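Follow-up to my post from last week.
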Amino acid sequence: MTEPVVRLEHLSITYTVGAGVFQAVSDVSLEVVPGRVVGIVGETGCGKSTLAQAIPRLLPEPPASIGSGKILFRGTDLVQVPKRQLPMVRGTGIGMIFQEPLNSLNPAYRVYDQIAESIQIRHWRELGYLKTFQGGEKPFDYSKRPTPSAASVLSKPIVPPTLVEQTEGRQLRSRADFRREVLEYLRLVRINDPETILDRYPHELSGGMRQRIMIAMALSAKPSLLIADEPTSALDVTIQAQVLTLMKDLIDEVHAAILFISHDLGVIAETADEVGVMYAGRIIEYGPVDDVFRHPSHPYTKMLLRAAPRKYKSDGPLSSIPGSVPNLSRPPPGCRFHPRCPLVQPNCRGETPPLVPVGANGTHRSACYYWEKVPAVP
Amino acid sequence: MSRTGASVRRYQTGLGVFWRVLRANPLSLVGFLLVATICILALVVLLAPHLIVPYGPQQETGAYNRGPSWQHLFGTDGNSFDIYSNAMLALPLDLGIGVSLAGVSMLVGGSLGLVAGFYNRPGSLQSAVSVTILRVTDVFLAFPSLILALAITRVVGLGVLPVMFAIAVTWWPYYTRLVRGEVLALKHLPYVTAARAAGVSEGRILRRHILRNLLEPLVVYFTLDVGTVLVTYSTIGYIGVASKYPGPQPEWGAMLAYYQEFGSITTNPWLVAFPGLAIFITVLAFSLLGDGLRDILDPRTRRAFVRSTAHEPPAEATPSESGAGEGALPAVPLPEAPPIVDAQSGVDARGKGAVG
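User reply:
Got it. Predicted complex:
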């Protein structure tokens, strides 16, 4: 197994709002290795986005604060990195795709300027004009990372490989050089007619296009960890499918570690290799996507899967999970799902159940004392 | 369909867009032309006054209390001074006062507002600085600025420069408030977070992302403010503490104040009408220009104007949808009009800077 790009160890994040302290994320541990996609799925308000933004330390602190735990990015604890140095980690180290494509592009600049800024920063870092920080002792070696290029599977016209070689390790001097590289990334995200799109302002593009531009921006920094925070949620269904197809293609092409956040079980099932199910700030089940979705071992996962529409009118009305998400300023003791759980037993209110292996090979883990009874959950 | 639309569309930058927006918006054009005329006149008065100023400021012409005529465009006063010459000689001073006072206030107040808005993380030294700036601003805003300016002139003395100083002292807090509010709204927008996530440093975010989007309200406010400053200075001039009239350097407000004594507006209206009109036109010109500048600075309205003047059918303005749609079907090649043509036409239309 390759070394993980990022490893979270018992990460807890709280928001202090007025007198209340909300435990948005509690004791989350996970790791992402290059080339793998870890999905995080959960209801609204379960702490997914907080988790996503906490990794590159983008959360406004205060009100948010990282209570305990470590965010190990290539072996360096980002919690300890001083605030001034954080921009060095972002972009080239940790890239991010946001969920609001409509507002995530600066309305005052053309598409070219937006992507060129990100390329320029990476370029300055490659040349050593800008300090960058990639964790560990040795500086990050860019040459080992393949530039995202056309995979043979794809029939779309993408960057000719010669271009990639030309731009590699060479100073981007002129606007033409930048333009060429921006075009390369626009083609990478399957934008038709990139020469025209280049000169457009964000308000002239549709949501799907803007999301592609966002993805191109994030990729053009060549991140070793890419965090996609609900990249498809704000789009309508057809565009969602396109962006999802694109993301899946890119996951194959870009050899980055990817953390994919979504509330949509279908999206996670399509994209992720491993999935963590979050409830009220905790990961309550974690494992390979197939295992988790085929044999859910936590009552919440099981009920969440049942609440997702599968086929049009297959088996009567959709079920919902009774009760509501707990108030995170006073989370219920023990297992946070116990007030809504059909399997609840007295000891569920006592100590918080740990994540224990449930499968044969130990990769599938569940935080339920009674995971063996979960298949019986209606 | 969208391809032909895309290739027909012109992407103009710089002066082209400027001209198209002005043409689409006649009032802005009027404002722009007026401001241009005023500036040129002011320059001519400064550099070569004999071209358009026939008489000196205190030169007796021998014609007493005459109405407007070809000899004396704006008439003469009881001292037989030419009003047109005086009004013209006052132009560079009044224009300079308006632009420089508003400019200095914008720079000083705007920078303070930028600091107060951007660096206000709670519980840090930054926020202490920001709170201090805001409270000082409040103190200034709580006081009527005209009265404060008058009080300051009591301390610093009379004359053009002291009064300008007094106005500047009272003028910057408005910019601080405006800029701070805008920064607070802008800094939490997703694109700022996105830039931060892309590794852009805080300083660069402030310069490139926040300042650029501030520009539009700021420029509009500035152009309106040039007029307001001018009126304030003229008000102070009217009270008679700023400039002496008649004197070697006339000023519109002082002229108005002085000519009150010479007959009423019914008997010799030209005495007050022309200096008043000069103030009015200058203020109006800058206000109209401000409207036009806002349209130019905002890419959304800019493109809309360009589009409407180019008479393009609206159906062709949806290349984005078609682009996204085609992106979903990787197998479908585009039959006609290969992208190269678009690229070249795009480059040609852009003219400068775009090296294909």
